[in-house]
Amino acid sequence: MSSGSFVEVPKDLLKEIKRLEELFTVDTAKLKQITDHFVNELEKGLSKEGGTIPMNPTWVMSFPTGYETGTYLALDMGGTNLRVCQITLTEQKSEFDIIQSKYRMPEELKTGVAEDLWEYIAECLLQFIQTHHGDVAKLDKIPLGFTFSYPATQNYIDEGILQRWTKGFDIDGVEGRNVVPMFEKALQERGVPIKLTALINDTTGTLIASAYTDTKMKIGCIFGTGCNAAYMEDCGSIPKLAHLNLPPDTPMAINCEWGAFDNEHKVLPRTPYDESIDTDSPRPGQQAFEKMIAGLYLGEIFRLIMVDLHDNHNVNIFAGQDIGKLRRPYTLDSSFLSAIEDDPFENLSETRELFQNQLGIDPNPSELELIRRAAELIGTRAARLSACGVAAISKKKGYKECHVGADGSVFNKYPHFKKRGAAALREILDWPAKADPNDDDPIEILAAEDGSGVGAALIAALTLERVKKGNMHGILHPENFH
Ligand code: BGC
């Protein structure tokens, strides 16, 4: 325990805490086993037969030099917000100017009809351009990088066939189709002067944006509403692209879509709570790894534990209280767990207030101990499992030393996530103890540059540049690249 003490916790509650500890603790041996399986699955995803992890080639075929220039629009359709940016990559090496607007992604759009989604996005873009450029009728088309952070097959960089929705999205008629024409139709109908030059994943954007300012960057990760990573592969190591006869040493960024790791449930230590989340999700059987790690699910795992300990175990926590609010699925997001883990007081008074204010529940002191421990266990498991993915890519590529750029609400805001992840990476990769606590780790997971803004702009720039030089691989509409 990092706070409080167990002296007053009744025996049956202690037993439950012990049970949760057993369910949620992932020891070093397990981390290593998961990582080894992960390495195999990464390989399988690149093979002709394919595997569970999609390992999507992205047609991002180089790292930036830092000398890219030009003005680009970037559209970020993440899990929570819609963001429109205009990025100017300046003459100054690795520098940029950015203006941006955020729009709320209305909840009903996430499970509504496709047309409404594209219309809403097109409206936001139109508003942005009108505000910053005036009359759209007088404008030349502006190049846009579209960050579409869902698994998509890309035979071309300006194409994205949605494999499946993730992060709770469930919009009919989009899965299995190329989203670019749907998006472009909505733009045309409103006369929005945009040409799409790249559809990108947030992880690829993160990788490229981070490499713009730091040449040691080898992997881009998102630990946010969803969870995923991208890294640079050589075309010669991607058997599923062999038919294209690309030069074997040509780089190709791979969007791993590692959220799908272990959908077969071979190695991940899933608990009954994880199983329940999966069963009740819009896409059961998908995103097994993501559902144990990502921000969308952390609060829900916690909620399920609390409801279970109220209903199904002898302990009957919150006895006699109305837990109606707690019964509502997805009522707690990961910031709720963050607040519990951040509670600085030994008597957990902030946690108590949180429960009173948000849930109308007044936990007693021993229940508060249990609450704190449950949050720690969920947060720690998420951080430790995340490290398996980073370790697996590093092992596969033989990276002994590098930087990993990471972004997302869990990475940036969840207490101790970075520290716990770094500790797990050390265990998995058997690094010796640090001589000086201030020494860097051989592989450091660092806060990334803005991937879905600057990264998208850079990828648009890199693609325009390579087309200019005659590299037409993975370009569907060359006419948009002049
Ligand atoms: C999506 C990925 C994305 C990740 C982080 C996952 O649910 O499938 O494409 O990179 O979330 O946003």
TrEMBL record:
Keywords: ATP-binding, Glycolysis, Kinase, Nucleotide-binding, Transferase
EC number: 2.7.1.-
Highest taxon in the source lineage: Eukaryota
Catalytic activity: D-fructose + ATP = D-fructose 6-phosphate + ADP + H(+); a D-hexose + ATP = a D-hexose 6-phosphate + ADP + H(+)
Any one GO molecular function term: hexokinase activity
Organism from which the protein derives: Podospora bellae-mahoneyi
Ranges for domain Hexokinase C-terminal: 218-462
Transmembrane stretches, start-end: none
Protein name: Phosphotransferase
The protein's annotated pathway: Carbohydrate metabolism; hexose metabolism; Carbohydrate degradation; glycolysis; D-glyceraldehyde 3-phosphate and glycerone phosphate from D-glucose: step 1/4
Domain (Hexokinase N-terminal) ranges: 17-212
Family of the protein in this entry: Belongs to the hexokinase family.
